[in-house]
Amino acid sequence: MSKKKKTLITQRETKSSALSAVKKFWVAKGGLCGFFFKKIKLKLNNKKALKSFRGSIILFILAFRLTPYLVPITEKDLQRESFHSVKFFDRDGRLLQEVLSENSSRSIHTALNQVSPYFIKALIASEDKDFYYHNGIDYKAIIRAAWQNFKERKIVSGASTITLQLARMMRPGERTLLKKIKEAYFAYRLEAGLSKEKILESYINRIPMGGNLYGIEGASKAYFGISPSDLTLAQASFLASIPNSPTRLNPYNNLEEIKRRQKYVLEKMEEQNLIGKERIDRIFKEDISLRPQTASFLAPHFVFTLMKTLPEEVQNVKVTIDRDLQKIVLEQTSRVVKALKPFNVTNAAVILLDNATGEVLAYTGSADFFNTENEGENDGVRALRQPGSTLKPFLYLLVFEDGLTPSTIVSDIPTYYKMPTGIYCPKNYSEDFYGPVRLREALANSLNVPAVRVLAETGIDKFLSRLKEYEFNSLDRNADYYGVGLVLGGGEVSLFELARAYMCIARSGNFIPIKEIIEIDGKEKKNSEREKTISKPELNYLITDILSDRFARTSEFGFFSVLNFPFPCAAKTGTSFRFCDNWTIGFTKDYTLAVWVGNFDHTPMQKVSGVSGAGPLFANIMHLLYSKKDYPEKEPLPEELTLVPICPLSGKKPNHSCPSTIEEIIPKENLASYYKDSCDMHTHIKGKIHTVLPERYEEWAEGFEAKNPASEIKKEERFKIIKPQQGAIFYRLSNVKPEYQSIKIELTTTEKEETVNWFLNEKPLTETFKEHSFLWQIKPGEYCLTAISDKDNNTSSNINFTVK
After folding, report:
1. Biggest distance spanned by C-alpha atoms of the chain
2. Residues 6+ apart with CB under 8 A from 286
3. What CA–CA distance (Å, rounded) separates 745 from 780?
4. Is the peptide bond before 724 cis (omega within 30 degrees of 0)?
5. β-pairing, 417-419 with 682-685?
6. Distances (CA, A) of 132 to 196, 197, 200, 511
7. Where do the H-state alpha helices sit in 67-138?
8. Could you read off the pLDDT of 647-692 as tens digits, one per residue?
9. What is the pLDDT of residue 148?
């Protein structure tokens, strides 16, 4: 074979081999298909086509490389391209948070000369060591990366320059081959119109720094609380490690991984003679103290919600949040959720409102915004959840308008309702039935059976319409969909809606919208919504009085409830089906506070109810609100209401046989019916008092007597201490203030007007008249409690109890 022929064969083989290698490389990269290679091969086998193809490629390369100088990116273009941040200030003008207007991320522009040289050197050494020597594309780096990736058969190295990364940040999108070509062209345009310093400055202000942070200024202040000009080498190399993988290298979630990357950055600096080798270990071991995440991120859920409603050009927003109260709420939320962790509780949400103005004073959507494992970025204030019993006050307020009063009796006995899914029999939380109960007791103890009975008689449509007046817009189905379970939490509402509705009760039935913004760029923000009156002030007073009645709720909540306060405070709890959510919502004269505790993934808590889950958080915040403020006074009785004596069992005007009486508040317009009917459940037979219940209670009474042989229904003793019981042992808790630890002392007597003298360990304690019940603050010791009637000194009762 001739030398010429051999050379031609070798050239063909080389060409074929080269085509094969190129084809393998692009297929491995997922960039081209077989059809593309067939076309190229045809062109290469045709000399004319080959010449034309080469010309096209050369023309494309020249245009790609030279036209950027005709359309360069200038500083003016950068200003147009740049994003601006929005500053949120609290009600007193203190900075709450600064966020990026475009995507709700924090960024603050900083000049290059205001950044520590350590950070600049660390960033260039680890991200683009030849930054000052290329024109946007580093061809040496591309060849090196291609060879390394080819050898490893996977992507192990990249060739993205700082200019390319800036182009990608300014023109985000899906990473396709065409997109990468566009990025390269944009990088050339950046290099054509900007100095290296301006490119670097723009880059360090846009660079992702973990979480919702962008830019060196925001990162430096968020992580270390210092200006970027004050960064040490250890801090600078630490921050320069984050951009490589800002999601994975979040300092709060993956400190070990970021420390490994930091060592890599320091080694690169040493390789380029920027630092001495002996400094690496010392710097790497230097203790780096990170600021708490919440330090510069006080109200993320609140701020990000508002960001969605603001025009793009807004720069400064003054909101209603009180920074000090916000810190208190965040701290207490974190503390309580941590204490409830053994009961499978991972989250909580809180909103605090000013009753006078409707302004949001504090707002936290989760226990930890940065906790991705427990979905901390979810906003529990706005999330729709089953509200448990928290809608009951609005039902009772509605029936008060129809003429019922707190003394009206409703049956708490097993009752069955036909539902689309079958027969439904509601039960109380304790699974006990209390027979005839007054509406005051039913609401205060959050009894389910009476509430369902009242709703069934009132009408679901009517109740649903009333809830719509309170703007529970999330309840968007018809009455048949919810059924009688609506009053027990059968729908889904938000904590935001509940807080707004309870604030209406606190405002005596006057509904106002919630206010979140005070000023936008110096101009006052006015609410477009108007206030409205939903119900009469005196009826809202009745609901408030019931929800703050510590005596009325003892049947279900006991006397040592966390909801007992040294000042008037109305509170309502709720627990959803399967313990997935629990709530405590309430108010004083000044504030409305709404608390949710639960899990965003709807997994159930371990027997955590509203009073044991959300209750402690509610109580802690309420106590702190008044720790440096005078306690609110109880509102005076409205002139439309009056106090009347009633029989506790029948709820009616007492007759001469009623063994005891209590006072109840009723509207004056109900006085005629009050005087018309007297108690029909007590009577004298052969000189003895007997209780006569309506027929519907017979089955319940038999079961109650069997379970409670010493119950009031069978009790024949004329004069007896019924609380505390003989031999009772009480424990004083070390973690609760003594003034909040009391027991109820109570005596039953058949005499209507009788004075009873009380003695504790033979020393005078107090004196009672008509109503023989009071609170006694417990102290450790052994006690003998004695009650003596002033009518007959031979009439007495005594019991022994212990406090440890």
Report:
1. 142
2. 232, 234
3. 16
4. yes
5. unpaired
6. 7, 9, 10, 64
7. 75-81, 117-127
8. 999 999 999 888 888 999 999 999 999 999 899 998 887 677 888 8
9. 63
